[in-house]
Each structure stands twice: as C-alpha cells, then as structure tokens.
Write a structure and sequence with these properties.
CATH topology of the largest domain: D-amino Acid Aminotransferase, Chain A, domain 2
Number of strands: 15
Bound molecules: pyridoxal-5'-phosphate
Oligomer: single chain
Mean pLDDT: 97
Low-confidence stretches: none
Structural class: alpha+beta
Number of helices: 7
Number of domains: 2
Order of helices and strands: EEHEEHHEEEHEEEEHEHEEEH
CATH architecture of the largest domain: Alpha-Beta Barrel
Length: 285
C-alpha cells in the first residue's frame, strides 16, 4: 500500500482526496518535482527543492515550507514506503477556489501533495550491460516557459506519446530553427570527438537537476570537456554519441534516432566514463 502526503498528513494514497475545484486539476496551475532515492538516500535533494521554490516564485505561489520541512516530508515518504528504490513525487498547486476564474485567487491555501513510486535500479556504468535507448524526434511544440517545471504537462505528454506509440523510449525535440532543445521528459546531449555538448539553459528547456549535477561533476573531474551551446539537428545526426538524462534514468545512452543508428549504433565509451563519474558522486548533492 502506497502512503502519500497531503496537506500535512500521511495517509494511504487511495484515501487522498482533493477538491475538483483545485487549480492544479482545472488549470494545471502548479509545479512539481521528482527526487530519486536509493535505500533511503536522496539524490540532489537541495537542488530539487531550490528548483521547486524558484518555480513557486515564478508563478507567485507562496508557501512557507523550508528545506527542512520538505526533508521531513521526503523522509516520511521513504520511511513509510519501505525505502528501496523510490521516486519521491512532490507537488504544489495553487489550491482550490470556489469559482473557476483564470486570475490567481487571493487567500487560497496551496495544495501540497507527495507520494512515492518504485523506480528501476540506477544504470551500471558498463557499456556491455547498458540498454541503448531508441528515440523518435519531432518539432518541439510546447510553450515558451519550459524552464518552469509546471504540472501542465500536456505538451510533454503528447510529445512522449508520439515516440511511445511508434515503439520508441523517448522523443527528442528541436525548435523551428532545427536546434536541439531537450526530450519530452529528459535533457539531451551529444558527444563529438570526445567533447560533450548540451543546449544552454533558457526558456526552451527544463534546468534538469541531473544535468546540473553531471555538468558540475564533469567540470570538477576535468577528464571530459563539456560545452553548453546551441546544437543543430545536423550535429545530432552526425554525433558519435547522444545521451538523455533525468532523475530516474540518470545518464541514458541513445543508440537509435528515428530508426537510424547513432554513431556506430553501440553504447559509447564517453557515456560509460560519464555515468561512472555520476554514479560515484550522485549522493554528494
Ligand atoms: C522536460 C524535462 N526535461 C528534463 C528533465 C530532467 O530533469 P531532472 O534531471 O531534474 O529529472 C525532465 C524530468 O522530468 C523533464 O520533464
């Protein structure tokens, strides 16, 4: 039985109830996080909470929860859901109003919700064992505020479904200029001649915590060069390696895009080196 958290209380997920007038339900008016945890140890707790607090300030939701308050919620969810490999989902919506009106209402209490779900073992940094992801690609037709981790995910859902319904694991996205943005639920990278490149942070992509941690680790390690720059889809097509990253996948090697092999079609050596560095350092954030 999954135990959830709702507005100050831990309770069985099936018993958690919100109003149909909740603006998260009516408008997707809220933000969320997913924090991975392994055996009760969270990965990237502080940057995840920082991003959530920044998201709340972007959309003017005021909630007086500190990092320690969020930590207590995460620890409660891990404890009550048997530890193991868990994704901790945290969600804040603007709350329930008594009418449906677009403007932000005053004096409504935000809804705070969390639950935990099982996630896969993290990838082993070994090329011979790694699963190569097969992805589709399509033009990024989401909104122009992709840096906000909004619960209004229909654009992402439709892009993910595009790949899923044609047998792909993810969908890579590019803008109208033919430049790589990210994937429907992951950040994206290419590797060419040993150099890792990833699109710069702007309104077109989510500032992924896995991306943040990976770039920090690679910068400190110094063995792999990293660039944050605009990447064209022509460069993606001729890359030696392509990766996607997210909290639950960590760094995932892409071996096929729209049915065409990436590089030699095998999981690459730079991925292996980068995932090794990530695996060794991920609990330090
Ligand atoms: C659109 C999008 N980009 C990137 C990411 C990766 O972010 P993170 O590394 O923080 O999980 C996600 C994760 O859900 C996402 O939805």
């Amino acid at each position: 039985m999954t135990i959830a958290y709702l507005n100050g209380e831990f309770l069985p997920l099936q018993e958690a109830r919100i109003s149909p007038m909740d603006r998260g339900f009516l408008f997707g008016d809220g933000i969320y996080e997913v924090i991975p945890s392994y055996d009760g140890k969270l990965v990237g707790f502080a940057p995840h909470i920082d991003r959530m607090q920044q998201g709340m300030s972007f959309i003017h939701i005021e909630l007086g929860l500190s990092h320690d308050d969020w930590l207590a919620i995460c620890e409660g969810l891990m404890e009550q859901n048997g530890k193991g490999n868990l994704g901790i989902y945290l969600h804040v919506s603007r709350g329930a109003d008594d009418k449906r009106f677009h403007a932000y209402p005053e004096d409504v209490e935000p809804t705070v919700f969390g639950f935990a779900f099982e996630i896969a073992e993290p990838p082993v940094a070994d090329r011979s064992l790694a699963k190569g992801y097969k992805v589709a690609s399509t033009e990024d037709l989401r909104w122009q505020r992709c840096h906000i981790k909004s619960t209004a995910l229909l654009g992402n859902v439709m892009h993910f479904q595009h790949g899923h319904s044609s047998g792909h694991n993810e969908t890579l996205l590019y803008n109208a200029r033919g430049e790589l943005t990210e994937a429907s639920a992951c950040n994206a990278y290419i590797v060419k001649d040993g150099v890792v490149s990833t699109p710069p942070l702007d309104n077109q992509i989510l500032p992924g915590i896995t991306r943040l941690m990976l770039l920090d680790m690679l910068g400190k390690d110094g063995s792999i060069e990293v660039q944050e720059r605009i990447i064209t889809m022509d460069e993606v097509a001729s890359a030696d390696e392509v990766w996607i990253s997210s909290s639950s996948k960590e760094i995932a090697p892409v071996t096929e895009i729209d049915g065409k092999p990436v590089g030699n079609g095998q999981v690459g050596p730079v991925w292996e080196a980068a995932q090794k560095i990530y695996s060794a350092n991920k609990f330090n954030y």
